[in-house]
Amino acid sequence: MKPALRVSGFLALFANILHIYLGFTQFDFLPVWAQGYQAPVYLFHFAGNILGVFLCPLLLPLPDGAPGKKKTLPALSCVFIAVVFLSQIVMRFAGTGLWLGSLPLRIAIAVNAGLINTLVYGLFFLSQMHGGHESSRTSRFCPPALAMILLGAMFARYFSLPLLRASGLAGNTDRAFAFMSALDGWLILAAGICAAVCTVLLARLRAAVKESPAVPAQSDTGFIVRLFAMSALFFLLNSLMEMRLLAMVSGLKAVYGFNVFLVSAAVLPLCIWAGKAERNFYNRFLPGAIAVFIILPCLPLFQERPLFILIMSTLAAIVHYTIWIVFSVSLVEHYRGHFWFYFIAVAIHFSHGLSLTGSLLHPIMPETTEFAILLMTISAAAFALLSFRLLSPKTQVPAAEPGPAPLLPSFSIDEILREHKLTIHEAAVARLMIKEGLRNEKIAQRIFRSTATVELYATRIYRKFSVQSRAEFISLFVRK
Known about the structure:
This protein is mainly alpha-helical and 480 residues long. The protein has helices at 2-27, 38-59, 74-93, 96-99, 103-129, 142-167, 173-208, 221-240, 259-276, 278-295, 306-334, 341-351, 358-361, 369-388, 413-419, 424-436, 440-447, 451-464, 470-475, and strands at residues 249-250, 253-254.
């Protein structure tokens, strides 16, 4: 059942992201009289994202172990999914003549699409969280799975125009637009079916598995805010630079080149690495991302050097997609609440809305090379400062002092427990030792186990951390 749950969550999100990316192709065939309405559509799409942030926690499942988590009836969740998706499907199959010329219907479709986006992102992460790594909130396959979704949609967008030209549809704007609209309808239908299946499987799996008492844990708010700020900073800068940081995008139109393959070849391995060791990944990836940001201010000075521009924009694209994927997973990993789970799941995607602010700010911005360099330099400095708080400083333990080196507190305790491969019960015992200082008898009462069982867990914990006592173990987490 667990593999089916993960596959259904994966397919629901993939069908939705594919629908969004192929929507760019659909816009390429807009009738002349409808040109220019894309930006308002995106604004209402993000309004739908916000609506989903408040509706989804009330009507859909929430993470296991969330404080104050309520039980959601699977039937209610399926009815909600059916209403949301069917309204979108009916409009798509009703024909473009019905809604394309109607502003209220276009707004309704855009808001509904944003709501669907929040819904499927949340279900995807819920499917990955169920049955993942024992001491982790998400599966180690979550980052590469999200990478395959985004990169697959990007390739579909890349090949869609050549395929339409080869089929002869591209020569007739009206036929091409109607075909893409119908294809959107089928993709939304597939996403809705997979979302409903995911919800049912999630409810059945939770009913079949006896849930262990959850140990209260706090969200790493500072970590979450810094990741969101770094992502928002990149997208805002890209918007102010008229999307020139990504060679694959120009305004709202794709201008993919061969570098799309280079980006894909780099992003997927990076995401696999992040899934295996998050802390190690950030320690290695962020310095390179900072270096890219530092070099970006040179772009305005090399407008006559297309090769340099291509190389830098390709590196920026690698940073862009890696940030989108890994940061999204990290936000879910470090959030321990319940109501705002669906906002956290879609937060990085939501930060893309800053890409729409460029058209509003350009009229008041000086169009000079000096100003562009200053803007990019300030952005690079801000990105570096935010990154430094996530990097773990290197420490050396004198050889004369035997014993394990103290673990750094830069990341959450859960990440450290994950790296030492603690089981879910060992991790629960370790948290109670560290955060509340409880003895074995009290821990046994809290997790509904015998004292002997807790002592066995403690012995295994000490062995995995190469320590001899409880005091030595707890000292590893004390700030130095």
